[in-house]
Amino acid sequence: MGTVTTMRQLTMSQAINEALREEMRRQPNLILLGQDIGAYGGTFGVYRGLFDEFGPERVRDGPLCESATVGFAIGAAINGMRSVVELEFMDFVTVAMDQIVNQAAKMHYFFGGQIKVPLVIRTAIVSRMGMGSQHSQSLEAWFIHVPGLKVAIPSNAYDAKGLMKTALRDTNPILFIENVKLYSTKCDVPEEEYSVPFGRARVMREGSDVTVVAISAMVPESLAAAEKLGAQNISVEVIDPRTLNPLDVETIAQSVRKTGRVIITHDAAKTGGVAAEISQRIMEEAFDYLNAPIVRVAGLDVPVPSGALHPMVVPNQQRVIEAVLKMLGR
Amino acid sequence: MGTVTTMRQLTMSQAINEALREEMRRQPNLILLGQDIGAYGGTFGVYRGLFDEFGPERVRDGPLCESATVGFAIGAAINGMRSVVELEFMDFVTVAMDQIVNQAAKMHYFFGGQIKVPLVIRTAIVSRMGMGSQHSQSLEAWFIHVPGLKVAIPSNAYDAKGLMKTALRDTNPILFIENVKLYSTKCDVPEEEYSVPFGRARVMREGSDVTVVAISAMVPESLAAAEKLGAQNISVEVIDPRTLNPLDVETIAQSVRKTGRVIITHDAAKTGGVAAEISQRIMEEAFDYLNAPIVRVAGLDVPVPSGALHPMVVPNQQRVIEAVLKMLGR
Amino acid sequence: MASGTTIDVAQSLSHEMLRHWYEQMQTIRYFEEQVIEFFAKGLISGSTHPCIGQEGIAVGACAALEPSDLILATYRGHGECLAKGADPKKLMAEILSRATGCCKGKGGSMHLCDVSHGVLGTNAVVAAHIPISGGVALACQTRKTGQVTACFFGDGASCEGEFFETLNMASLWKLPLVLVCENNEYAISVHVSKSQATPNIADRAQGVGMRNQVVEGNDVLAVYAAMRAAVEHAREGRGPTFLECKTVRWERHSTFSAGRYENAEAAQKWRKVDPIPRFKSHLLTVGISEGALEERAERARATVAAAAEFALSSPPVSPDAILEDVYEP
Amino acid sequence: MASGTTIDVAQSLSHEMLRHWYEQMQTIRYFEEQVIEFFAKGLISGSTHPCIGQEGIAVGACAALEPSDLILATYRGHGECLAKGADPKKLMAEILSRATGCCKGKGGSMHLCDVSHGVLGTNAVVAAHIPISGGVALACQTRKTGQVTACFFGDGASCEGEFFETLNMASLWKLPLVLVCENNEYAISVHVSKSQATPNIADRAQGVGMRNQVVEGNDVLAVYAAMRAAVEHAREGRGPTFLECKTVRWERHSTFSAGRYENAEAAQKWRKVDPIPRFKSHLLTVGISEGALEERAERARATVAAAAEFALSSPPVSPDAILEDVYEP
Ligand SMILES: Cc1ncc(C[n+]2csc(CCOP(=O)(O)OP(=O)(O)O)c2C)c(N)n1
Ligand SMILES: Cc1ncc(C[n+]2csc(CCOP(=O)(O)OP(=O)(O)O)c2C)c(N)n1
Ligand SMILES: [Mg+2]
Ligand SMILES: [Mg+2]
Question: Does residue A1 fall inside a structural domain?
């Protein structure tokens, strides 16, 4: 690449903030909509400083009505703006589903391409804070089932910034799924402009015995598991798809052709989660290479209980380790 | 069984009507909520005659606000009634998702069993009428991902009546997914009281070469395909899961252990559809018996276009036939 | 029932303009009759929702808008699309699922769109386009384009949460928006008396402090007068208006759904208040001749015939096109 | 600021009753302070939303209800649960995720429930419980139980579509329901001036023809008086009431979210209108002794201490229990 890259450590929260700030500067028609996004800086602080820099017209805080807020964001997007709307907890997508699914995702299609919807819906998974069944869901699976939407789900600061930059230059509705647990995690992020394309999985750690496809907060958990398993001479490859639609099946399939064994892991409830889709796609691409059934390490099929009880439901590195050992017959 | 069973031919619409009528007679606290369910008899006529027999208090037509309507149905259900609420097109579940997912499904759990929610949410898939992208979705996959909900999706009059009877005596929130295309299809239905339990798949046709797991309108399509393939000496087993949660994996796995080959088919868009979940469950149960990757015959990953164009997107018997032939290398 | 204002407005209008509105109303009427005929012949699958009897609202309201102004409407929005200037040929082709349709044939009767004429789309989910119209107006306000946005919807829609959410936000943010409620008394089968406790839907706007007015919707002049005031108010930056246009629905909800009236007579009620003969007799009063009006009606018929002809002779949508436009590349 | 009615009401109340309300308010205050302390000690994960400063609404409103009446509330509903008679021990145990909690420890601070005392649950999705309360009231109406249902929610909730949908339906169906809006001026960080264009949220009820009243929410007597009238109205089958109780929020939205006031002074504003000292000085005026009140405060402290003790000594939820109650067998 010839150019020197200057790195700093940023948290994922700072990295997303930076992506938004840079694009707010570049694109005068970019606006942010939501609740508590003004001087308050967003429920989880991702918008810190943006209100001060860009003012109340472009960082537009509003009444508590998510459905109309997403509708407004769509309306602005189809009329010359680019909108970013925040839904504080992923559980609240339920309040705006029609706007996301029937309007934003399908409009470009059923209007024959005449209408463009440059819209980013940011939302956060809060599965590991003990905030109870209505504040702990990981619902990404619903959205890969909606043609017309793209779905990004980064697991670290570098990817989050790069994917957000891509999202903010795309002209389609994008669901951008963050994770409260990851906001404070740090990694190297270049000072220089860069972006991460949609549809390219990232091999987070190479390995040869088992492939672990991990999503969102399960990426660091799986890396920690891989580290521990490495100490037992078990070599685990960890792959983060980074975007679920488009999904980079090829990178995953390549890994499977090498390892023959796959575990897919996410916080979301097991039944009907994205692991099933990823599994099916792996089967379609690499059936002959599979030495064992694909295994899911996922949330239990119960609502996430509140308080200190959530770790009994939401998966963790220990469950990944157990699954790997079991798969290898150890 | 000793007793004589008197059969009549009923349409699926009549069968559901009959189940509701019988239980309305039996259970004085059973009420129906929705829009156009009064004298009008429901958008697709399933409620014909119920308003006349049970009056406006028990067949309660109301303003156009699906979200509150479902909320009201929940409120009535937790306070001594049993509610049935109609969402005319499955696409409109999007307007009531919070009530279905965060309230009805989780309440029994997060209130520690204190609250019971005897609620049936009836809705209809309308994928084959050309009513456009916002009136043609099959969204059952979303709901198998919601612990606390049960999901029924009958394909014929007999099962529809029997499952509805079970639903109306269950004390959990149930999503009951009908299909406009099937309303007018007829089959034998006993005069006598009967019910069909949740969680038992039905082998609709026995066969030995390929297992086709078919859902809703794809059941008759698959049976027609099987018939035609039979003429070419290809023996297809067709299984209708009837309920998606609970899902009877065992009956399907048994079939797979016999045939070694599986096609799963539904109207819903392929990516993220229930076929992926069923496929994964088959893999978990019968990996060693699979002779080929499991194949999905599903809706294309595009919004369903309007008018006469929908058959290019929604699957049909021809696509099942092609998939079977391809799978058998013919 | 022309009020003082309406007469004032009517007198300020040129005969040419009045004749033009008459032609537009007739065009909409013939267009919808043609659509119904096509549906009956099986050329349209799904459903279609005629706005017959409500032409006065579409024409009166759109006449008060500039060409650069924006509208959004419902599945019952063929009339508004035509009144706003969309090409009848492309609309008819769209309704018949032809490749030459305004949405390349993929939208159909309920999803029409013509950005070049400010038609930002008709919507098939009741009330969903109301917040979208709020966002459209917000963009105009933020970008200071001077455009006004009008959003058309029904009495049924005014029971949906999103309607209220938008009412509140639009009022709060003083958006350049006119919410035009076509109160045709029915939401499929539910009569307004079974969906609201107050006599006027406009009361809801009052509840969030929004300027509002109840209008005789079968009088194109009354609609125009009220809309003109609302549009001026919005254009001056003074905020939104809620216009409740009282009207009567055609004899069915759609070509698919019966609509259920108490009796056959009620189903024909719209004929008694039909805005077209009503407007016609006004035009005769102000001195426009029967002949001039017949000429306009004839032109309307010709426009619709040409649209029908165009649509029928257009190719179907190709299988490849079905796969396009899911994403913007 | 007691109005005429309030004084009338106050005079009709026995001293015993007034002392009891005082104790209830103190119990709620101490309970919330204890919860905050537990949170600070890391004994509660997630978040908890104290109703400190709003005790007058919980106590005044619930005092006007019969034991058999029903309530639903929000995550900020500890006070209402206590005022309605739920066992403080089981509530505290629930908030600490203990197996002895009212929801077996799985609900936590935001999901409390005590069916035996008519508490049909607190909810963590803003406004979602409002239509549910409508359905609860509908069931009472249909089954002719004579019960009244009260639903508590905030100013923020009154911007959500479901609030409005319920307002409309409840008004239309004349449900035995009282919608108690606790307008504490903030929805997390958004001040009411940024979420509504009218001075009173009660105007929204006017818009759908619902009986409504604005009440000084920091005055337990005013709340009681208004609520008593509303409950009577409902019980007589004359329909719902919307009560807007003006109050001031405690210094934070929750133990997790800061809540953001313009300045530190604003965050302490609630202390100036604190309903407890206000009620106390009224009680002293009517001749209840300082000593009698201190005795009640002491009892309140003891109740909370016992609840804390019970909770702390209760076992955690077992892994098996986590898997139970997903479905009713
Ligand atoms: C959210 C939603 N619910 C239900 C429907 C089905 N539906 C289509 S039109 C209609 C009636 C709407 O009535 P109104 O708003 O008065 O408009 P009108 O049809 O009278 O013009 C209904 C219930 C829908 N399309 N969207
Ligand atoms: C649908 C939904 N949106 C957002 C939130 C996050 N949230 C929790 S409390 C709250 C503020 C609610 O304000 P208000 O209704 O005034 O009640 P208060 O907290 O002041 O008692 C918000 C935005 C939520 N829980 N549910
Ligand atoms: Mg109507
Ligand atoms: Mg508040």
Answer: no
Rounded to the nearest angstrom, the distance between the alpha carbon of C181 and the centre of ligand 1 is 13
- Element (DSSP H or E) covering residue C228: helix C220-235
Please tell me the residue having the least CA distance from ligand 1 atom 21.
C154
State whether A159 and A302 are in the same domain.
no
Catalytic residue status for B108 = no
Same domain membership, residue A172 and residue A27: yes
Last residue of a domain, one of B163, B190, B217: B190
Cα distances from B287 to residues A287, C43, C214, D312, in angstroms, run 11, 49, 68, 49
**Continuous segment of H or E residues that includes residue C205:** helix C202-207
Sequence-ordered strand ranges (E) for chain C: 70-74, 119-123, 149-154, 177-183, 186-187, 190-191, 211-216, 241-246
d(CA A239, CA A258): 13
Q: What is the CATH number of the domain that holds B274?
A: 3.40.50.920
Helix axes C275-285, C55-63, angle to 10 degrees: 60
Give B84's strand partners.
B32, B120
Do A211 and A183 reside in the same domain of the chain? no
Measuring CA to CA, which residue among C94, C232, C193 is closest to residue B56?
Answer: C193
Series of mean pLDDT values for 10-residue runs along chain A (330 residues): 81 98 98 96 95 98 98 98 97 98 98 98 96 97 98 98 98 98 98 97 98 98 98 98 98 98 98 98 98 98 93 96 97
Q: Is the peptide bond before A246 cis (omega within 30 degrees of 0)?
A: yes
Same domain, B174 and B238: no
The domain in which residue B305 lies consists of: 202-327
CA distance A197 to C115: 31
Q: Do D105 and B74 touch (CB under 8 A)?
A: no
Question: Do A216 and A296 share a domain, yes or no?
Answer: yes
Provide the residue type at D37 as one letter: E
Which has the minimum average pLDDT: B188-192, C129-133, C263-267, D119-123?
C263-267
Q: Check: CB of residue D57 under 8 Å from CB of residue D273.
A: no
The domain total for chain A is 2
Q: What is the pLDDT of residue D90?
A: 98
Instruction: Provide the token pair at A132.
Output: 């109870």
Q: Measured between CB atoms, does D46 come within 8 Å of chain A?
A: yes
Model confidence at C3, in pLDDT bands (50, 70, 90)? very low
CA distances from B122 to A63, A144, B51, B87, B180 (A): 33, 24, 17, 6, 12
Residue A140 to residue A273: CA distance in whole angstroms: 8
CA C95 to chain centre: 16
pLDDT digits (tens, 9 = 90+) for D74-96: 999 999 999 999 999 999 999 99
pTM above 0.90, yes or no: yes
Q: Judge if A182 and A233 occupy the same domain.
A: no
Q: What is the pLDDT of residues C82-111, one digit of tens each?
A: 999 999 999 999 999 999 999 999 999 999
CB D46 within 8 Å of CB A129 = yes
CATH number at residue B64: 3.40.50.970
| Residue D323 near residue A313 (C-beta atoms within 8 A) | no
* pLDDT given at position B56: 97
ipTM of predicted complex: 0.98
Q: Look at residue B197 and tell me if it is in a domain.
A: no
CA dist., res. B274 & res. B264, Å (int): 9
Q: Which of C45, C107, C190 sits opposite B61 (nearest CB)?
A: C190
The residue whose CA has the least distance to atom 21 of ligand 2 is: D154
Q: Are D209 and C203 inside 8 Å of each other by CB?
A: yes
CB contact at 8 A, B320 and A165: no
3-state SS of chain D: helix, strand, coil percent to 5? 50, 15, 35
| Pair B154, B288 in one domain | no
Active site residue B135: yes
Domains of chain D listed by start with CATH number = 4-315 (3.40.50.970)
